[in-house]
Design a protein that fits this description.
alpha/beta, 2 domains, 5-stranded mixed sheet, two-stranded antiparallel ribbon, elongated, CHP02391, TIGR02391 family protein
């Protein structure tokens, strides 16, 4: 009974990825996108199979062995890409050699806390092979610097103003409609707040940019406050009308940036002081 108790798989480990390389690359992208501080990244090598142990503040992740080396193919290419991604984020990667038994436990999600401790205290491979894995495929460490395809394509919900969170949640279904409705909703909010029947860019010109604007963007610097106020009509004129009159055909990431611009208007509006 005691033997079974102390040999239960750890409940502190989060397993990500599958035996497929792309799934493991996507998992690393999620970690890099969501974890503020990566404390340690270990490449776990067993013969020509590779997995990862990644520790962030309060979390331990295991990426299963969807990576490989020593031949040409998706496994080695994925390994090189994963290393470049981590280096792109200024994360130092060390490599350790592990047993076939440990690699099997990784892939079956059955590591013990003691197994993690063993890996964290195992002597790292020196000299390092990290760059050799990269150069074998890409001949450079710069390939991923301008490549963002492994990050999750999702809006950062924790940054979205609560008044348009519902539009953010439906964004992928119809980004054009979400953007257009966000503009319309902001118009209504500002109209009601200053009791005005103006609309479109004229409303924002009056509300934030007139001689004595009803809404003053928070700033002790008058020029900075005026410049911030001009953001409202400028963004409205730059992006709103095309969504009102046409089905805009743009990459999803471009539309996300537009939605985030509108989200910033909501935040600035909420912080604006109403002239008494």
């Amino acid at each position: 009974m005691l033997f079974n108790l102390f040999n239960q798989p750890s409940e502190e480990i989060q397993y990500l990825g599958t035996p497929y390389t792309q799934d493991c690359l996507d998992a690393i992208g999620i970690i890099l996108q969501t974890q503020i501080h990566i404390e340690k990244a270990l490449l776990l090598s067993c013969n020509q199979a590779h997995a990862y142990l990644i520790k962030s503040h309060g979390n331990t992740y295991i990426i299963r062995s969807g990576f490989s080396s020593g031949y040409s193919g998706e496994g080695p290419k994925g390994l090189a890409s994963s290393l470049q991604l981590l280096l792109k984020h200024n994360i130092e990667v060390d490599e350790i050699n592990i047993s076939e038994k440990l690699m099997k436990k990784i892939n079956h999600s059955s590591l013990l806390d003691a197994d993690i401790e063993i890996m964290l205290t195992t002597k790292v491979v020196r000299p390092t092979n990290i760059y050799e894995y990269i150069y074998a495929i890409y001949k450079t460490t710069e390939y991923q610097v301008k490549n963002d395809r492994y990050y999750p394509t999702e809006l950062p919900y924790h940054l979205i103003d609560s008044r348009i969170l519902d539009l953010a949640l439906k964004f992928n279904d119809d980004p054009n409609r979400s953007i257009f409705n966000a503009f319309i909703r902001l118009e209504n909010i500002v109209q009601n707040r200053i009791n005005s029947d103006k609309h479109s860019s004229a409303l924002f010109e009056y509300a934030f940019c007139s001689e004595n604007p009803p809404l003053i963007c928070k700033s002790e610097d008058k020029r900075a406050s005026q410049a911030t106020g001009r953001i409202f009509p400028n963004i409205y004129k730059a992006f709103r009308n095309e969504h009102a009159h046409n089905e805009v055909s743009k990459p999803l990431k471009t539309l996300m940036r537009e939605f985030l611009l509108i989200n910033e208007l909501y935040i600035l509006e909420s912080e604006a002081i109403q002239r008494s």
